[in-house]
Structure prediction request, 317 residues.
Amino acid sequence: MRVNPVRKHFEADSLFPFSFVHKDTKSSQAELPDHFHDWYELVYVHRGKGTFFIDRSLYDMRPGDLFVIPGNTIHRAFPDAQQPVTSTAVYFSRSLVEDAGLGDSFSYLLGFDASKKRKCYQYSYAADERQALEAAIERIAEELRLGFRGYRQAIVLELRRILLQLARKIEPEAAGIPQYPDLAAGPGWMRDILLYIDDHLDEPLGLSELARRAAVSPAHFSRAFKQLVGMNLTDYTRAKRIVQAKELLLQSDRTVAEVAECCGFGSVPHFHRIFRRVLGITPAAFRRGSAGLAGAYRAAFDEPSSSAAKQSGAHAR
Prediction:
C-alpha cells in the first residue's frame, strides 16, 4: 500500500519556515509527485505551459498566472513536453506572516482563505501586476543569494507585500465569496467524478462504481484518472480523507471515532493506522498539538452570517 509519496516534507529552520525554488524548469519526468503539505504555497509561471491539478480542478498554466495553494491541498503540476513550465515556487508556514492585529480584520492569508472558500486557485496577472510581482520575486532571490544581515526580515517584507497585493487583487471578486465553477481542463465526466468524490468521502468509492457513474470502462477510468490527476484512485481518495479528517479534528468537537466514520474509514484502528502512516502522528495527538490552530481555522472559514461578530471580536489570526 503506497501512502508516503503523497506527502511533501520540508526541512527548514524552524525560526524561518520558508522555502524558495527560483525559476525552475521541470520536465514531466522531473516534476514532483502528487503531494500535499501543511505549508502555504505560491507558484508563479514565468513561461511555458502545462496543466495544474489542485484540490479537484484542472487548470491550464500560462505565463503570468499565480497559483495560490493553501496548506493541506492536494496538487500536482504537469509540464508540457514541448514547452515545459518555468516557475517560481514559494513555500512558507502560517507563523511567518501572522500578525497580532492592527485594529482591523486583515490577514496576510486572506488570498488563501478566499481561494479555499471559492475553490478557485488560479489568478492571472496583468502586465503591470506581473512586473511588480516579478520584481518582488527577484528581490527575494537576491536576498537569499547575498545573505546579508537582516536578509530574512527583508524576505518576510517582500512576501508580505506579495500577499498584500494578492489580497487587494481578489478582494472585489471575493466579496460574498461566490462559488466558482471548476475550470475547463479535462473531460466533463472527470470533473463530475471529482465533485462526487468530494461529496461522498464517507461512502465506499470503488473503481467499478465510479467508472459506471462516468459511463466509461474501469480500465479507461483508471488510466485517465492517473493521467489527469497524477494519482491512482485509491491514493487520491485516501489523501482526500486524510485532509478532511485533519479539518474535522481542527474545526469540530467530533470524537476520533466520529471523524473516522465521517471520512469513510472502515474502523478506528484503520483510521489510526493510515493517519499515523501519512502524518507520523495519531489523530488525537494531532488535535492536541494543533489546538492553537483551531481558532484561526474557525475564524478563517466561518460562515458569512457570523462575519460581523468575527470582526468585532478578537483577531484569531
Confidence is low (pLDDT under 50) at residues 1-7, 303-317. The chain has three domains: 4-174, 186-230, 232-302. The longest strand covers residues 18-25.
